Amino acid sequence: MQQKEEIFWPEKSLISSLLDKKFAGRYNGIKRFKMIDLDKIEPSNFIEAEILEDLKAGRAKEVITRCPPEPSGYWHIGHCKAWTIDFETAIKFGGYTYLRMDDTNPSREQGEFAESYLEDLKWLGYTPKAMIFASEAYFEKIYQIAEQMILDGWAYVDELTQEEQLKQKGTLTSPGQNSPYRDRPAEESLKLFREMRAGKFPDGSLTLRAKIDMEHPNILMRDPIMYKISREHHYKTGDKWCIYPIYDFAHPMEDALEGVTYSLCDITFRVHRELYEWFIDHGWKKPFPPKQREFSALNLENVLLGKRYLKALVNSGKVMGWDDPRFLTIVGMKRRGYTATGVKNFIKSCGVVVSESNIPFNALEYYIREDLNKVATRAMVVLDPLKVVITNWEEGKSEEIEIDNNPNDENAGKHKGLFGREIYIEREDFALNPPPKYNRLVEGGIVRLKGSYIIRCNEVVYKHNGEIDYLKCEYLPNTKSGQENCNMKVKGTIHFVAKENAFDCIIRNFKNLVKDEYLWPNKALAQGIALDEILEENSLVETKAKAEKFLLSAKPFDKFQFMRKGYFTLDKDSTPDNYIFNSTISLKDSFKR
Fold this sequence. Notes:
single chain, 593 residues, alpha/beta, seven-stranded mixed beta sheet, 17 helices, 28% helix, disordered N terminus
């Protein structure tokens, strides 16, 4: 079809003209791509193999990826997989990654979410080349591309309602029907499109559609909508626009305008690739267009993901917010005490493949536990205290002991603890009727206190109701840990906290948010099961504990191994008068790598 009008294409990139000057270099011909020796790169997956082949053949000049969230909710572990692949792929080939707000749907988007993403990437250890809002940087240019596609004969304004369009789409086994407005003259469609932008039509009355093929076997290719009329207030651009581009059109155009060379996404977008490439071919039409390539999504068993479900729980008040430690949002995992290294090591262990696989939750826990063991500071905390009186120790006297901050880190140092007349031990570390192979404290038996003396239990003191009140024990002189000439053998060692060195704290214990029988909670909800039905009862239980005063210097998100009990982190809700520790993960590992 003959072109009737030429739309202006600015010579300078929109990124150069609209964003910070530090981005202008690449678009003004200055090489920003880090030079690497391609012959030394060993691809570790099919995407890297294709990129390497493209670079060697000259089909690509550099590797630029993008992280394109819709700011409609906080990121979760599924996003971590996508962003890790985006950043790690670019880094391997000397390239970089943009953080782009794909904010084309104002009814769902909020600035609160957009502002959180830079912090999330920082926590993961990644720094984007730039943070870009598509609404500010690209909306005008995308609109111009749409006008040009009308003039080129590849788009038209349709007056059918979306319900009528849906009926005419056909099915997987039957072709669709052309809209009666499909062949209207380009000049007429262009006039109507400009009037749509000017606000002359009510919401939903007109749409701009791509002119492809209503008999195409891929239903997405049957004249998809490119623009709709919607007078939703936009969190970034206000009421400047009353028409908005649809994701399938906006996304490839944003990639192209940004200079992205590889648009990496999960396998659910595989069916969209054909449409992505059609819009690139008919809308962008420039050398070195972006390539879309897909990898398998993260299928983690027994985990509730999906922004609409998490948002429903947040709005219901049944959780503490988007950063609830039971959520696998990034802010939730951070608050729970997970490490970014552990999360990324887990994601890398899943590989970059196309085939779907189901991953047990304890596989994630394995990598979190593995990293925490390296970085968490050791401390003694008694979660279920039982008082012990050392009858042969002088009242008011205390003695310092040394505790390794982390035996796996020679630079971690030590901190001071105390031993005194009254101490607390775990209630489970004493048994009146011990099971076989029980190597802890029994009446008349001995046990070693971590970093301190061996003690013997001589008497159990009971309350009026028959419950144990406290234990009377004696310490054995010349048995302190590390003391020379101590030849006494003891099978069991337990931790403790001295009364003079103890303060009260709150422990938040968590169960999985979802009942064990719901391996795939998102599928259950999609099938009509109520959200309340899949939730585990009492998934959060608070208890009181005795902690050594060394932990009074802890800051929110500091990570600790409470000896013999598990990993914990100080919660952000803590105050100087009320320390709250979140249970991160147990010490035991049931996962076989």
